[in-house]
Design goal:
The structure is a single chain. By secondary structure, the chain is of the alpha+beta class. It has 3 domains: 78 residues, Orthogonal Bundle (Arc Repressor Mutant, subunit A); 105 residues, 3-Layer(aba) Sandwich (D-Maltodextrin-Binding Protein, domain 2), CATH 3.40.190; 91 residues, D-Maltodextrin-Binding Protein, domain 2. Helix content is 43%, strand content 21%. The chain is built from 9 helices and 12 strands. The strands form 4 sheets. A 5-stranded mixed β-sheet has the order 4-3-5-12-6, covered by helices on one side. Strand 1 and strand 2 form a beta hairpin. It is elongated, with a radius of gyration of 25 Å.
Length: 294
């Protein structure tokens, strides 16, 4: 009996890969098995379940309604297995092991790396694996311990802790403002060299939207920030990303009375009955470090 159940579970996961790829050829290559063997296993699974899971043609594969339902069940099984594996590999009482975190690129560069460095100094047995992107991963299915996300509506199926609020603020270097003057309204920005990101050439203010332009636009805000510091134009970036430069007088905020309400950064984690001590401790550390000045 146990052997039959084991094989059925194996076939379910094989089917999950075919459903993900929608191709027997690609799925077989990913799984490291022959296409013929994979096809036979899926046919046997359909017989065992007495359900058609796939519609096959010479050129394509698509899921039936039953197939889509089974895929959702397989995803739930994967999450459960990952939860068991996570519990088994984590020492539940010590701050040790690897922390897998996903976070936005700018937050990673501006805040998270420093937090991780300080935490590692306090707990040397901890290591970090950071996915720096804007992808909203399924933390359980993709096996992440924690996520930082910019949002005003955190997901209800995760434990969400607000750690900071931020706004996008305009700023420029003291030398740039000394040479070209300080704009007093957003409308005056059209007279200045503004350095926007590639997908944000329209800057929003409480008085309306302004289309800005300058000698440079880029999809890397670290490049724009440095140009601003070097006195080559006005930039508009998240407050946490330019906070150090402002405190060090490298950048000066402008048009602050016209900025819109910003967003919040939330620390998210899966809802586990007994989370690992490393997750609990790092979460508390982040909240303390961001809430309290150094």
């Amino acid at each position: 009996m146990y052997s039959r159940e084991h094989k059925k579970i194996e076939r379910l996961f094989l089917f999950g890969e075919v459903a993900n790829q929608l191709s027997f050829t690609k799925a077989a290559k990913t799984l490291g098995m022959s296409k013929g063997y994979l096809s036979a296993q899926i046919k046997q699974l359909e017989q065992e379940l007495a359900l058609p899971l796939l519609v096959r043609s010479t050129r394509s594969v698509r899921l039936t309604a039953s197939g889509r339902d089974i895929v959702r069940q397989i995803a739930s099984m994967r999450r459960s297995l990952l939860s068991v594996e996570r519990y088994a590999r984590d020492d539940q009482s010590e701050v040790t092991g690897r922390l897998r975190i996903t976070a936005p690129i700018q937050f990673t560069n501006g805040v998270l790396i420093e937090l991780c460095k300080q935490f590692n100094q306090r707990y040397p047995k901890i290591s970090f694996e950071i996915d720096s992107s804007y992808t909203n991963y399924d933390l359980m299915a993709d096996d992440f311990d924690l996520a930082f996300r910019a949002t005003n509506q955190p997901p209800k199926n995760l434990i969400a802790k607000k750690i900071m609020s931020y706004r996008h603020i305009c700023c420029a270097s003291p030398t740039y403002l000394a040479e070209f003057g300080r704009p007093t309204t957003p409308e005056e920005l059209i007279q200045y060299q503004c350095l926007p990101s590639l997908d944000h050439t329209i800057w929003q203010f409480s008085t309306g939207n302004i289309t800005v332009k300058g000698w440079l636009s880029a999809n890397d805000n670290s490049v724009l920030k440095q140009q601003g510091i070097d006195g080559l134009g006005i930039v508009r970036l998240p407050s946490y990303y330019v906070e150090k430069a402002i405190n060090n007088k490298l950048l000066i905020p402008i048009l602050t009375d016209f900025e819109l309400r910003g967003q919040s950064i939330y620390l998210l984690q899966p809802q586990l009955i007994r989370p690992a001590q490393k997750v609990v401790t790092f979460s508390q550390f982040v909240q303390q470090k961001i809430a309290l000045p150094d």
